[in-house]
Amino acid sequence: MDLTLVWFWIIAAFFIGYFVLDGFDFGVGMSLPFLGKDDTDRRVLINTIGPVWDLNETWVIVAGAMLFAAFPEWYATLFSGFYLPLLLILIALILRGVSFEYRHQRPEKAWKRRFDTMIIAGSAVPAFLWGVAFANIVRGVPLNANHDFIGSILDLLTPYALLGGLTTLMLFFTHGIVFVALKTEGDIRGRARYLATRSGLITAVIAVAFLTWTVVDHRTPVVIVLALAAATLLVCALVANVLNREGVAFASMAATIAAVVLTLFSALFPAVMPAINNPSNSLTIENASSSAYTLEVMSWIALLAVPLILIYQGWTYWVFRKRISRAHIPEEADAHAPA
C-alpha cells in the first residue's frame, strides 16, 4: 500500500472535518449582527456552539500536526510562504476564543459589544482566508528549486484566490445559519431559516462560479463529478431549508463543504504545492513526504486514536443535542456562557 497516497487523503479528511465542524462555528459567529436583535438573542446564538466550538478547533490542530509529520516539505513551504495569512487566522481564532470566555464576565453593554465585534471578526477572517489559502494551493505559487516560496503577498491575492475566499466565507455563513435553525426554538429559528434562504442564493452563485473556474483549470472526470456533486448538494440544502427540514439542510450543507474540499484536493493531486513558474519545482506527494517508516508508525497511531476522537466528538454532540431558546437564557446572568 502506498502510504503517501493514504496520508494525502487522511489529511484531506481532517480538513473536511475541520471545515464542516468549525465552519458552522464561523457561520454562527458571523450571524450575530444579522440574527442577534438584542443581547439575549446573541447569547442564544453563542450558546448553540458553546459546548463544542473548542472541540471543533482541535481538528485543524491535528490536521496541522499530521501535515508536519507526513509531509514536512509541504508544511515548511506552506507555513513560510503563507506566513501572514496563517498568522492572521491564528490571531483571529485567539480573539474569538477569548471573546467566548470573557464576554459574559461583565454586564456593561459596551464591554459585550466589543467582544461581539471580536467574535464576528474572529469568525469572518478565518472563513475568508482559509478559502484564499486553499485556492492558492490548488492554483500554485512561485517556488524555487529548493521549494521555497519566492513570491509576495500580492501573488496570493489573485482573482481566483479571492473568489475562493468568498466561497468559503459564504458557505460557512450559510452553514452556520442553518445550524442556528437546527439548534434553536422560537422567533430566532424562523428568522434563521429566512436568512439561510437569502444567503444560500448568494452562496450558490459564488460557489458555482468558483467550482466552474476550478473545473475549467482541472478538467479531470473526478473533479467534474465532485464539483457537480457539490453544486447539487447545495441546491438540496436550500430546498430542504425552504421546506423546514433543518436536519436535512444541515447535513446537505455539511456534505456540500465536504464535496468542495474533495474537489480542491482532487484538483491538486498528485501535487501538494504546484509551482506556477516552473513545474519541475513543484512539491508532490512523493518528494514532500516523510520516510516510509514514519508514515507506517503514524498509520498505527491514527488507527488507534482517530476512532476515539470520533467517538468522543459524537458523544459530545449527543449530550448537547437539545434546542436552545430565549427561555433557557437567564435574565441577568450568563449562566450558559461557554466554558
Automatic annotation (TrEMBL):
Family: Belongs to the cytochrome ubiquinol oxidase subunit 2 family.
Organism: Paramicrobacterium chengjingii
Gene name linked to the record: cydB
Protein name: Cytochrome d ubiquinol oxidase subunit II
Pfam family, one: Cyt_bd_oxida_II
Membrane topology: Multi-pass membrane protein
Segments passing through the bilayer: 6-32, 74-95, 115-137, 157-182, 194-216, 222-243, 255-277, 297-320
Main location: membrane
Alphabetically ordered keywords of this record: Cell membrane, Electron transport, Heme, Iron, Membrane, Metal-binding, Transmembrane, Transmembrane helix, Transport
Matches recorded under InterPro entries: Cyt-d_oxidase_su2 (IPR003317)
Compartments it resides in: Cell membrane
